[in-house]
Design goal:
315 residues; alpha/beta; TATA-Binding Protein; Rossmann fold; 2 domains; five-stranded antiparallel β-sheet; 24% strand
């Protein structure tokens, strides 16, 4: 349970961020990451610092409780040393595991679904059919609000050509395809026809079957067989997480200037925030998130939508 947070009431939050970054830079890797924000990376953990008008927010993370305590102690000790003009109260929350974080609270979830354009009967039927046929695997399907977001992004971007990695039963493909113009095309890639066979009747019923080119096989093989150079206006990645970095590197050069890439599940249920989770998927997604943020070919924003969604636009 290696995450802990402290909210420190103060009139000088930004000043403390600068002081901590400047001082700790002699003992650890410390950098300012934005206005009033910074990160300190120790040997066995990290601490993020964020200033708001009323407080300094500290978020400590480490791979085990002992290391977490060490990070907390170092930051607390130095912060109190700098507070010569006020008395600070630094109370850390108890250790919390990343997968225990509540990214979307039930009340928020209910409210936002009640205030989105609801899915039409065809999408609703597809969602019900997916739940009945796939059981717990139905969790791989995008939620109605995320489907609406994909459809809106395609329409707003004016995309004519799109690619999707990870089709499942075709809900997201349906949202993307019907947002394309009549002569638009979606290249939909999935490794197996086990679930995609369910998709085709719904695509046909929606009148978009002729817009979707479904390719069955390893997506990397499909991508690498495509012509090099820009060809797509829109891309959506929602497949096996370990291959996200590879999918990304194949797709970005094939995006047209101004093309939009959407990455799903960038939080992995909060596990990417927690250094205790070190499986291949967790490490790959951390690499992915870092790569997008530092890619000078792209402009990006990460959104707390469902399990985390990153939007990245080709410059």
């Amino acid at each position: 349970m290696p995450l802990a947070t402290a909210h420190v009431a103060t009139d000088r939050p930004a000043r403390y961020v600068k002081q901590l970054i400047s001082h700790m830079g002699h003992k650890a890797t410390a950098e300012l990451t934005g206005a009033g924000r910074g990160t300190i990376t120790f040997r066995h953990g990290t601490c993020s610092l964020t200033s708001t008008p009323q407080e300094l927010v500290l978020i400590a993370a480490a791979a085990d409780p002992g290391s977490l305590t060490g990070v907390q102690d170092v930051v607390t000790r130095h912060l109190l040393r700098f507070a010569t003009q006020e008395e600070l109260h630094i109370g850390w929350t108890g250790p919390t595991a990343g997968d225990a974080l509540e990214i979307v609270a039930p009340a928020i979830d209910d409210y936002l679904l009640a205030h989105c354009t609801p899915p039409d009967p065809l999408l609703t039927e597809l969602a019900v059919t997916t739940r009945q046929a796939t059981g717990r695997a139905a969790g791989m399907q995008v939620s109605p609000d995320e489907g609406a977001l994909l459809e809106m992004l395609v329409r707003l971007s004016g995309a004519r050509t799109a690619i999707e990695i990870g089709v499942f039963t075709g809900y997201s493909a349906l949202c993307i395809a019907r947002a394309l113009p009549a002569d638009g095309r979606l290249l939909a890639c999935d490794v197996s026809s086990q679930w995609t066979d369910m998709a085709r009747p719904f695509w046909e019923c929606a009148g978009v079957d002729d817009r979707i080119d479904l390719r069955i096989g390893p997506a990397l093989r499909t991508l690498r067989a495509l012509p090099e150079g820009p060809a797509f206006d829109f891309a959506f990645i929602d497949a096996d997480k370990a291959n996200y970095p590879a999918y990304y590197e194949e797709i970005v050069p094939r995006l047209n200037p101004g093309g939009l890439l959407v990455l799903d599940n960038v939080f992995l249920g909060g596990r990417v925030l927690d250094p205790a989770f070190q499986e291949d998927d967790h490490q790959a997604m951390r690499r992915m998130n870092n790569a997008v943020a530092h890619d000078d070919r792209m402009d990006c924003v990460m959104l707390p939508v469902r399990d985390g969604v990153t939007l990245a636009r080709r410059r």
